[in-house]
Every structure is written in C-alpha cells, then in structure tokens.
Q: What sequence folds into this?
C-alpha cells in the first residue's frame, strides 16, 4: 500500500508538469485579448503599450518558464515567509494577475473562505441528505418513497442553477423579503446575531447547490446499497436471526459505503473549484467567480494558476480515493 | 453633537433643506452595487469603466464635467480660459491655480508637485498607462510654486482641458507612488489597491473583483461632507440582480449601468424601493458600411483592404458606396421600434454620429419614421432592381447580398434579426454573424473577426468619446486612419471612409478655438459622414442607473463618472 | 451510476429482490422456458424491459419528445426565426399556444428548434463520450500492456479541470470551426466535441473495471481455449457483458450534455443568442420570470422531462441488459 502510494505520488509530478504545459498551451493558442474590455476610446497604440507592460511581448517559452519559476519557486517562499516571518522572497516577482496587477495567490487566499463556507457547507448538507435517501430508497426499492426520491433527485439534477437560483431569489427575497439576495463577503461572524445573518445569506446558495449534490450522491448510494442487499452475506446475516436494523444499517451499509466514500472524495476538489454559476447568481464571489471573470478578461496568469491548482487537487484526491478504496475494501490489493 | 449643531440642524430641517443638515458621517452606510466588479483602484493601469468609476470616490482630478457637460473647478479656484488669462494667447499653455488648504487623506498637503508627478507617472514609456491620450501633446508640466501648475503643449491646443480633467485623469499622490514608476507599476499592489486621495472617501479594505469598503475621509475639504460614514461597494453578478437589489429588495442604494430590457426595468420599478434614472452622453449604436470590397474570394491582400490614390478608393465596395443603396438601407429601419425593444428609457432615436453634447447634435436629418416603400422606390429609380427574379436586387449584375456582423450580445442579435427582416423587404439579402466580443473588440491582427479587419459588408457596434469635445472622435473618419495590413490593422476608421473635403474641414476644426464655430464645423462633419454613406446611426444610448428612494443627491452624470458628486449624497428621511 | 461489481460475486448469487422488480414481472414468468424454441437475446431484453413500468414510460416520453422536435417543425406553420413585431410578448393563445417572445417569434416553434439542437447535442455528445470511454475502457481492461498508459491518460483528462477546459476550447476553436462549417454547424461540432471529450473518463474507468473482472471468468477462458481471436473475444464476449454499465453512462450522458449546454449558454459561451436551444431559452426567460412566467415554464419542463425520461429509460435498460437479472 505504501509503495503504491509513493509510486503514484512520484508519478504525479511529471503528470502535473505536463498538465501545466497543456493548460499553458491551450491558453496560449486561445484567441482573445486582455485589452478587449478596455473601452474603444483608448486608442490602439496605447493598448499596445499596455500589452507590452503586461509582458505580452515576450516569447511564449520564456513566459511559461517564468510562470513555472514563479509558481513553484517564489510562491512557496512567500508562503514560508508568511508563516515563519522570514524574507526569502523579498524582491522576487510573484505570479501577477493582469486585471488587478496584484499577486494571484493573495486573491485566491482571499476567496477561499467564502467558497468553503458556501460550497463546502452545501457539499456536507448535500451528503447528509443524500445518504438516508439513498439507503431507504434501496431498501424499499420501487416503493413510493423510492419513486419520489428518484423523481425529486432527477428534478434537482435537471434544473440548471441559473434558473433555480433566480427562482428562489424571486420568492424569498423579492416577494417574501425573508432573505438577502446578495451575499455579503465582508460579513464577520462574531456572535449569535451575526451568525444568524450569515445563516440567512447562506441558506439559498447552499440549498441550490445541495439539491444538485444530493441528486447525484443519493443515486450512488442507492445503487451501491442495491448491489449489497442481494449478497449472500446478507442472507446469512438474516438467517442468523439478526435484526433487520442491524443487517441493513451495519452489515449492508458498511459495505455499501466503500464506493460512495470514494465518490465523495473524488468530489472534494470541486468544492475548491467553487460553483461558477451559483456563485455568480448569489454574488458569493468565490473561486468560481474569480475564474470566470479571469476568463472573460483574458487574465491568463490568473486562469493558468487557478486551473493548475484545481488539477493538483484533482490528482491528489484521485489518489486519496484510490488509497481509501484499498483501505476500506480488504479484497482490493494494489501491488 | 453640540446643542448649537442641533439647533442649526432643526433650523435647516424647518427650512425644508434636508441636504443642508448633513454632518460628516451622520447617515450611516452607503451601499453601491456595480455588476462589473472593480479590479484595481488605479485608473491609469486599467482604463475599464468600473475601475475609473470606483476610484473616482477616492482620487479626484483638478476639474470635472457636470451633468450638463460644463467644466466645473474641483481642486482649483477656477477654470482657466483665454479670457481670464489661464490659457495663453497662442493656446500652447494652461495654468491651473490649486485651491489652498486641500489635503490628502493622510493629512499631508496637496501640491502642484503631485500634479506634475501624475503626468510623469502616466507618460513613463514602460508604464503602459491606459490614459495616455489624456496627455497627448503635452510637452512639459511646470510647477512655479506649490499651488500653480502650468501645462505646456507642443502645439496650439484649442481645447486644453485634456490633462487632469475628468474622472479618467485624477491626481495621484507623489509620496505614495514615487517608487511605482514605469515597469515597477504592477509591483505596487498596496498602492494600487489603496490610493491616497483627496476624495470624500478612503479605502479601508479592497478585495479585487469583489468588494471595496470605504470610510469618510477625515481630511476632506468640506468638513460637513460626506454625509455617509462608510461605503460598501459590491461588485459582481449581473445587471438584473443589481437592479433587483436596489429597486425590488432595497438591499442596495445605487446600481450602475442596468443594460436591461425596458419591461424588466419597469417591472423592477414596480417593486417600489427605487427608481431608474437615465442620462445621455455621446454613446451611440451604429452600423458601419464597409467602403472597400469584403468579398471572401479576394485574397488577404485585397479583402477589406483600403487602397487610396489621391483620396479615391481603388478597391471599392461593389454596391454599398451607391447613395441609393445606403439611403434605402437607412430608410428601411424602424428606429423607434429598435429603441423600444432594445433600450427603452435608456435609448433615443438618432440620425447623428455625434448625438451629444447638444451644441454638436446636428438637426439637419430626420430618420424617425420607417419608409420601406420610399426605400424600394429609391432603389427602383436608381436602376437597382431584381433582374433574375430571386427576390434580391442586383446592381450591375452583383446581387445585393450582405454579411452583417456584430459582437455577441442579446440586444444586438435582436437588432440583427429585425434589421435583416426589414432589409429583406427592400430586396437585400442579409447573412448574420456574431463574434464573441473579446475577439471582436480584441484587436488581434491575426484574427479575421475583429471589427477593425471588417471582413464583412456591414458591422454594428457602439462607440463614444470622453469629455465634451468630439475633435479627436471626429478624426476617426479621416483617410489616414484606415486600418490596413501595414498598420497591423490598427486604425479607428473602420468604415474606411475617405473624403478629401472631410479631411480639410477637420483640419480647420483643429485650428478653431471659438466654441460656436467648433460646434458648427462639428455638425457639418457629422452630416458629411452620415450622408456620404460612412455609417447608419441607429440608437443614441444612455446610461441607466437606479437609486433607492431613500438616497438623495444623485445627479446622473454621463460626462464624468457617475459617482462624481458622491460627497453630496445623503440619506433621505421618510 | 457506477455499481462496482467484484469478481467474487458469482453469476448466480442471489438477486432475488432485483429479479422481481414489481408484481408485473409475474406476467413474464408463466412461460416455461425449456419447452419453447430458443429465444433471441434481444427478445429477452425487451421482455425484461417491458416489466419496468417507469422505464417503459420514460422510453415512450423520450421518443415522443424526439419525434415532436424533429417532426413537429414540418407540421407547425411558424418558422422559429419569423418575426411578427405586432404580436410580441403575447401569452399563450390560439394562434401561439406557447405565446411569443420579445420579437414576436412563436415560442412553440422556437421550442422545437431549440429541442432539435439540445437533443442532438445530448445524443451526439453522449455517443462520442461513450465511444471514447468504451474503447479506452475495453482496451485498457483487456490488454494488460495498454492498461498503464491508458489509465494515466484517463487520469490526465480527469485532472484537467473540465469547465475551464471547455471554456478555453470554446474560445480556441469557435471561430475556426465557424469559418470552416458555418456558424451553426461549427458551434454544434464544437459543443459536442467539448462535452464529449470532457466526459468520457467515468465510462472508461467503469468499463475497465468490469472488463478486468470479466477476464478472470471461466467462459472467457473457455472461449480462449477454443482459439477465439482477440477481436472476436471483445465483440462477442466482453462487450455484451459490459453493455449494462455503458447504457447507464449513456443515459446519464445525454442528461449531462443537455445541462452542460445550458450552463454554457449562461456563461455566454454556448450557442449564440440568435440560435435557440432549451438552455438558452430558459436562460433568456429567467429575466422575465415575474412578467411572463410561462416563458420559463416550457423550456424548464422540456429539460426536466427529457432528463427524467432518459434516466428512467436508463434504469430499465440496465436491468434488461444485465444477464444476471434478466429472465428471472
């Protein structure tokens, strides 16, 4: 197991380097211009100067190399400096966003809290709702509850968040006036009252997102439970005279959770990736919104850094999922 | 609060002047939402409207435009003119006298050195300053004393109010930005995010592309202003959500630039929490007519390439330069309907390229009624008829089929569909195309889809100019401004319009100082461009913003930033 | 959905509950199997499928939707691009049963045109993802030498963040394809390819897992011992046995593609505004949610109904195609 993990970790390094090159090339060949959003009243000569100031005049390999150095060498130093109060990175140029002319990582760090609050909580809530639904649906397969659960989760899956989000805003913010339609990222939770305010502004985006997550996880849970419910060991357990509750909730559930846990682990990077559409609709301004504005503004260093960080997370959690699978299921051996 | 101020306050309230009872910071929090989030508070490094507007609450220019388009002194005693001796006789220098006693928000004095520094900062060759055009023609900036600034131009400048005037050209503090010149500009994150200014507010927390928090500037020159203690400046989302937050839920006080369908706006206003206000600058939506041949079968050396010999186009468009054709195309358009569908309150019918300021708005043309019959008649009389019975007219054997391109945008696609329908009624076949706006306006010489390259017969977009003087904007139709392969397809004259008479008249404009005469020439140039087939004006577009019913003092300004008078805003008591 | 099967569970370990999905199943039971001539495999599949009421209904609805959007425009007098400015913003009525939009275009005609695009995108993207996924999955599972490299390749694609990749592909190839195939076909190809190449990986992983398990089974050994070639082996013995997970991926793929397309419309990177799709229609109507709620209703209903029907169809197909369940 350990050698497997180490081998995969070592293998991940060239994979990630290759991915960063692929992302860079993709962005490099994409048409579009960071100056496209500058008003037409700014004449072309000035735009050309602005492009040069961004470093766009340099050849692509040099820019890629610069990015690699900045991301893998300077940014970790900045982190070390920040934690230990040293000054390794003093004077070094960090990865700078073209839109804001400020270090990309600073903005990312700024955005992580609200993304974790909203998307992370939605993920947890979604899982907490999904698991019981999946378990009961499978146990009472083709019952009214199962049919209803399937139906609701399919609706949740099929309604795009740009619609469901606006729909709940119109109902709960405009017509009823209960909840704010715009998420305040500057809000600090200090006491009970401010916690209630935070809860109020979170509830709509969290529920919209959780609906989608629930829809997917509950289907996995149901399928996995169904697979196990018909196994011999279940029959044996029942024959032994174990109670139905013990059979289902201990024997079957434990085995059914194995694939579901890996599916959940595989979904974790998407929390950090944010939810582009939901963040946009509720003005949560997290990582997803950062990415989409960067794409729209052709802010290549920002897009490159963000997509690469997602790639790292995805590779990492793929590995974690595989390891978890091996740990949880003794039948699986990696060699 | 002392008893005296209380008394004064009561007296003011009795005098029915709610604005006058303001005391700095007495009205709590001002909440503004811009659906495009500001990414930097240094307008010299961005040029985006969102960044210029948000930074205008913090840093200010020497003079501003008011909502009528008049210059008003801001940090100076008066507007220099030739009459008061502020502008010298040969129009090569302008002298600004700074109001004494103005302080930066850090408490230091605002001096002429800062003004001079701002010029040096922006004109640094490696800085990539977005507002470089503001300083065009400036030879030097002198500071005879702490409160006097002299701007010298290299040649006579009849309109010397470019540098340090308007929201795009604010003054930066020298002490803060001294180490941020040229190539070092992007390293100054702290400075770019938190500029020290003379404005009514100062930044307490700036989160790029998300939110700005500000507080009243303790050193602001008017001790009673601003009325608001803090500002929450939220960015992001979309125009619908911003309008909803102001007019329907009342969560925000001010929402900027609501490009929404008219019925959506009126539905929101029915929410009763706020109102929409519109203002009209020179922004207008138009169709440019390609004067050169854009036939795809031509090679890259010929397609849409302007070849001029003595001001005569050697590669002319097969039919678009025919007056009967472009006049008929213009007549077939129902502009009032376009306004109603696309812009509502925020649009007006216009026949002019320069629809504002009022002095420059020509009244020689009328285009507010659609006349399909007249257009058909015009084409018939010109001998441009359908000779082969396919429903499409031909001119000299060339069928009137045009490719009509624009940027991808819901309103523009609606316009395209409508105009295609109307043109088909006068026997013109139209193929529609829309290009992603970051490519269309991107200016990449390698892309075939930029608006400058104009690989189409007609194209639609909107353009405007800053300030109130259209001289350089009118220069966009000069023969020398054609985008060509030699210029990397850069150039403002996308129509490839060329008329020696026009060039001559424009040269005259650059030599004229008298305002009335300038306006007359301007109107004539405008008429020439439109009547000689350079473009078909469609809609004069306004700015539509919304403010809540409890926010007072809003005076929508299209000539400067919308937040120009934010110091005067106050909370109305209901 | 993935339902990982482990090699230990033999072909006949109890599937009692699954085998008798509903009382309706009894209808198929009275046939005494041995007394009849051998039945074709597809007949069995159909019989099993019929017993799943939800699947049958889902199938019927899906076929009806497909027929409506592809045949409907031939029968319906209005053209989706025909502008009738006098009749704009109308509610549902006799002339326009679904009402009209802000330019007076008939909503029913636009729904059908939009459905054509959305359903075609869904089907084509699903076929592409499925083809790629099954190919790579089968190859990786069957040939040990290819396994490592193909799975690293799959990991690479999994690690590429999907939405950004999609967005970049949009920006990258849109204009070129437009030039080569015209704006409509160009963007169609692009969206199908974009969705297809970013969604084949789960299918590949599942198929590979199943193939690995199948390879150890006796019937494969038997087939190999009588000299079956690799190609024959894959086509005759492997593929039919992994059809069930492939079918589930397929149905999910259709739904996913339709939804991804609508998300792209929201981000302004999908089909252009003048080109209706269900996602686009829903997005455009969202602004008018308060004034004209019916405009949101129709595309929303169409998307949900399609996704729902396809999923029930998938459930039924899964049961019908799984030889362990069928015929019990």
A:
């Amino acid at each position: 197991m350990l050698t497997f993990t180490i081998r995969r970790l070592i293998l991940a390094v060239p994979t990630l380097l290759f991915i960063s090159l692929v992302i860079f090339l993709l962005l490099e060949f994409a048409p579009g211009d960071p100056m496209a959003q500058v008003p037409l009243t700014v004449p072309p000569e000035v735009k050309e100067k602005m492009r040069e100031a961004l470093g766009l005049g340099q050849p692509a390999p040099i820019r890629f190399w610069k990015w690699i150095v900045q991301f893998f060498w300077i940014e970790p130093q900045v982190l070390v400096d920040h934690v230990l109060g040293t000054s390794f990175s003093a004077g070094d140029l960090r990865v700078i966003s073209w839109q804001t002319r400020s270090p990309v990582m600073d903005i990312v760090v700024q955005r992580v809290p609200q993304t974790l609050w909203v998307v992370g909580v939605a993920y947890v809530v979604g899982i907490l709702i999904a698991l019981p639904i999946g378990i009961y649906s499978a146990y009472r397969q083709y019952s009214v509850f199962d049919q209803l659960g399937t139906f609701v989760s399919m609706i949740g899956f099929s309604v795009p968040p740009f619609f469901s989000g606006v729909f709940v805003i119109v109902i709960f913010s405009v017509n009823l006036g209960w909840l704010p339609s715009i998420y305040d990222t500057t809000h600090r939770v200090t006491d009970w009252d401010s916690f209630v305010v935070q809860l109020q502004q979170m509830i709509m985006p969290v529920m919209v997102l959780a609906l989608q997550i629930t829809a997917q996880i509950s289907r996995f849970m149901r399928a996995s439970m169904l697979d196990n419910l018909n196994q011999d060991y279940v029959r044996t357990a029942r024959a032994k005279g174990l109670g139905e509750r013990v059979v289902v909730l201990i024997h079957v559930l434990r085995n059914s959770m194995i694939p579901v846990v890996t599916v959940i682990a595989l979904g974790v990077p998407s929390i950090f990736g944010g939810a582009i559409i939901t963040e946009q609709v509720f003005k949560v301004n997290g990582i997803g919104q950062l990415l989409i504005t960067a794409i729209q503004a052709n802010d290549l260093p920002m897009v490159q850094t963000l997509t690469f960080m997602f790639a790292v997370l995805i590779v990492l959690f793929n590995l974690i999922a595989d390891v978890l699978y091996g740990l949880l299921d003794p039948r699986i051996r990696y060699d | 609060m002392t008893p005296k101020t209380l008394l004064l306050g009561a007296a003011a309230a009795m005098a029915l002047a709610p604005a006058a009872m303001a005391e700095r910071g007495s009205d709590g929090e001002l909440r503004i939402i811009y659906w495009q989030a500001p990414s930097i508070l240094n307008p010299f490094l961005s040029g985006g409207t969102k960044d210029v507007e948000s930074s205008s609450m913090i840093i200010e220019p020497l003079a501003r435009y008011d909502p009528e388009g008049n210059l008003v002194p801001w940090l100076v005693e008066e507007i220099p003119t030739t009459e008061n001796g502020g502008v010298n006789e040969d129009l090569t220098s302008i002298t600004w006298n700074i109001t004494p006693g103005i302080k930066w928000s850090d408490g230091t004095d605002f001096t002429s050195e800062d003004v001079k520094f701002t010029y040096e900062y922006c004109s640094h060759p490696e800085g990539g300053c977005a507002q470089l055009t503001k300083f065009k023609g400036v030879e030097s900036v002198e500071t005879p004393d702490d409160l006097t600034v002299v701007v010298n131009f290299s040649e006579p400048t009849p309109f010397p109010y470019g540098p340090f005037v308007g929201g795009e050209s604010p003054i930066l503090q020298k002490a803060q930005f001294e180490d941020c010149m040229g190539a070092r500009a992007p390293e100054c994150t702290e400075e770019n995010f938190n500029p020290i200014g003379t404005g009514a507010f100062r930044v307490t927390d700036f989160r790029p592309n998300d939110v700005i928090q500000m507080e009243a500037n303790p050193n602001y020159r008017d001790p009673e202003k601003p009325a608001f203690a803090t500002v929450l400046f939220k960015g992001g989302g979309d125009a619908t959500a911003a309008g909803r937050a102001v007019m329907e839920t009342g969560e925000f006080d001010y929402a900027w630039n609501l490009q929404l369908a008219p019925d959506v706006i009126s539905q929101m206003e029915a929410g009763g929490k706020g109102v929409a206000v519109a203002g009209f600058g020179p922004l207008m939506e138009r169709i440019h007519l390609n004067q050169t041949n854009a036939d795809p079968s031509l090679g890259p050396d010929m397609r849409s390439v302007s070849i001029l010999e003595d001001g005569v186009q050697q590669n002319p468009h097969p039919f678009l330069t025919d007056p009967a054709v472009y006049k008929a195309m213009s007549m077939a358009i129902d502009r009032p309907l376009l306004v109603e569908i696309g812009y509502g309150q925020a649009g007006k019918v216009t026949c002019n390229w320069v629809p504002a300021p009022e002095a420059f708005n020509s009244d020689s043309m009328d285009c507010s009624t659609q006349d399909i019959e007249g257009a058909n008649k015009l084409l018939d009389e010109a001998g441009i008829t359908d000779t082969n019975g396919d429903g499409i007219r031909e001119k000299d054997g060339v069928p009137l089929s045009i490719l009509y391109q624009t940027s991808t945008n819901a309103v523009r696609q609606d316009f395209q569909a409508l105009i295609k329908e109307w043109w088909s009624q006068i026997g013109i076949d139209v193929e529609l195309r829309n290009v992603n706006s970051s490519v269309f306006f991107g200016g990449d010489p390698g892309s075939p889809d930029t608006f400058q390259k104009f690989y189409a017969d007609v194209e639609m977009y909107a353009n405007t100019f800053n300030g109130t003087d259209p001289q350089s904007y009118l220069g966009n139709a000069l023969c020398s401004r054609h985008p060509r392969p030699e210029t990397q397809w850069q150039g403002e004259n996308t129509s490839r319009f060329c008329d020696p008479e026009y060039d001559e008249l424009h040269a005259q404009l650059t030599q004229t100082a008298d305002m009335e005469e300038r306006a007359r020439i301007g109107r004539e140039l405008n008429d020439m461009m439109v009547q000689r087939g350079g473009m078909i004006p469609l809609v004069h577009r306004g700015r539509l913003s919304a403010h809540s019913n409890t926010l007072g003092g809003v005076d929508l300004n299209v000539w400067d930033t919308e937040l120009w008078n934010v110091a005067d805003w106050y909370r109305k008591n209901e | 959905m993935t339902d990982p099967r482990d090699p230990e569970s033999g072909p006949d370990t109890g599937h009692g509950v699954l085998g008798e999905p509903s009382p309706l199943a009894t209808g198929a039971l009275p046939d005494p199997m041995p007394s009849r001539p051998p039945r074709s495999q597809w007949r069995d599949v159909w019989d099993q499928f019929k017993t799943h009421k939800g699947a049958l209904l889902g199938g019927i609805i899906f076929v009806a939707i497909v027929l409506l959007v592809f045949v409907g425009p031939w029968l319906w007098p209005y053209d989706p691009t025909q502008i009738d400015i006098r009749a704009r913003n109308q509610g549902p009525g006799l002339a326009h049963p679904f009402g009209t939009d802000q330019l007076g275009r008939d909503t029913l005609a636009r729904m059908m045109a939009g459905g054509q695009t959305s359903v075609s995108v869904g089907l084509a993207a699903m076929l592409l993802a499925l083809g790629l996924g099954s190919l790579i999955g089968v190859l990786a599972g069957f040939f040990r030498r290819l396994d490592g490299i193909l799975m690293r390749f799959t990991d690479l694609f999994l690690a590429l963040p999907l939405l950004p990749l999609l967005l970049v592909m949009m920006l990258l190839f849109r204009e070129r394809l437009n030039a080569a195939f015209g704006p409509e076909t160009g963007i169609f190809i692009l969206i199908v390819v974009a969705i297809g190449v970013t969604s084949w990986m789960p299918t590949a992983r599942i198929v590979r897992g199943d193939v690995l398990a199948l390879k150890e089974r006796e019937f494969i050994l038997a087939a190999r011992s009588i000299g079956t070639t690799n190609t024959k082996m894959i086509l005759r013995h492997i593929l039919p046995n992994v059809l069930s997970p492939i079918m589930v991926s397929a149905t999910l793929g259709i739904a996913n593609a339709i939804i991804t397309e609508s998300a792209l419309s929201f981000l302004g990177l999908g089909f252009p505004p003048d080109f209706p799709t269900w996602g686009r229609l829903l997005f455009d109507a969202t602004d008018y949610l308060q004034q004209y709620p019916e405009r949101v209703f129709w595309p929303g209903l169409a998307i949900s109904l399609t996704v729902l029907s396809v999923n029930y169809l998938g459930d039924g197909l899964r049961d019908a195609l799984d030889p362990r369940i069928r015929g019990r």
